[in-house]
Structures are given as structure tokens and as C-alpha cells.
Design brief:
two-stranded antiparallel sheet, Arc Repressor Mutant, subunit A, globular, 6 helices
């Protein structure tokens, strides 16, 4: 982003985010994933057996959006829903065997994206960049929690 003739730090940061998003969406579309499905799959790979409400809260998205995402993933055979044995009011969402296999493909895509983003960076540059990103994240997190 330019203001006059000068490129700004914030403008460049926005451009990086935009280009990363475009590349990620291209790679995920090759896997035939709709927007929002990757975070749900990755969450379930870490904590299988969550309710729709827990998924919505964890990912900070609307429950109606979670419903649509889960419907598409269920139709594709990536997840199943099972009534909670102890409390029949709750339905838990689980990865199917197909979903677990798919997670491996998904993780390969994110590994590829990371390698593409940081190609030609030295290990020292990567460490510096991680420190900068942590500081940006922490600054924003503090503000968002106020």
C-alpha cells in the first residue's frame, strides 16, 4: 500500500496477509475444501469429539456458520456426529477415518505454504521474524482483550 510515493510498513503487512490468503485458498481449493473447513478439521485433529457450540466458541465463528461447514464435511465423509452417551442433549463431532487421512493432506499443504513463504530466508532471519510476529500478535491480543 502506498501513501504518495512511499510504501508503508502497515501497507506492506496488509499486502503480505492478502497474498498469503490468496495462496492458501488456492492450495485448499485444490483439496476441494470450502472456506472455514480447514480450521475445523485442524481443531478436531487436536480435540476430537467437540460439540458444535464448542467449535464455534473456539474458532470465534457463528454457530450457523459451523452448521454449514459441518454439513458439507459430513456429506464428504470427513466427520460424523454422535449423541453424547452421558447427556443425550449434546452431539459430539468426530473425524472419520477418511477425515483423519485427510488431515495428513491438509498438514502437507500448510507445510508447503510455509516453505513457499519463507523460501530463501536463513534460519536466523526466520527466528527474527518469529520474534517480530510474536510481538505483533501480543500487542494486538492485549488490545483485543481490553
Amino acid at each position: 500500500m502506498f501513501y504518495g510515493k512511499e510504501e508503508t510498513l502497515y501497507g506492506l503487512f496488509k499486502d503480505v496477509i492478502k497474498e498469503h490468503f490468496r495462496r492458501r485458498e488456492k492450495l485448499l481449493s485444490d483439496l476441494k475444501l470450502y472456506r472455514g473447513q480447514a480450521p475445523v478439521l485442524l481443531l478436531l485433529s487436536e480435540r476430537n469429539g467437540l460439540t458444535q457450540k464448542e467449535i464455534a466458541e473456539e474458532l470465534k465463528i457463528k454457530p450457523s456458520t459451523v452448521t454449514l461447514i459441518l454439513r458439507r464435511m459430513k456429506k464428504r465423509g470427513l466427520i460424523s456426529s454422535v449423541r453424547d452417551e452421558r447427556d443425550k442433549r449434546y452431539t459430539k463431532i468426530y473425524l472419520t477415518e477418511e477425515g483423519k487421512k485427510f488431515i495428513c493432506k491438509l498438514k502437507r499443504v500448510f507445510k508447503q505454504l510455509e516453505e513457499e513463504c519463507f523460501k530463501d530466508f536463513s534460519e536466523e532471519e526466520k527466528k527474527l521474524l518469529m520474534d517480530f510476529f510474536r510481538r505483533i500478535r501480543d500487542n494486538l491480543r492485549r488490545l483485543n482483550e481490553q
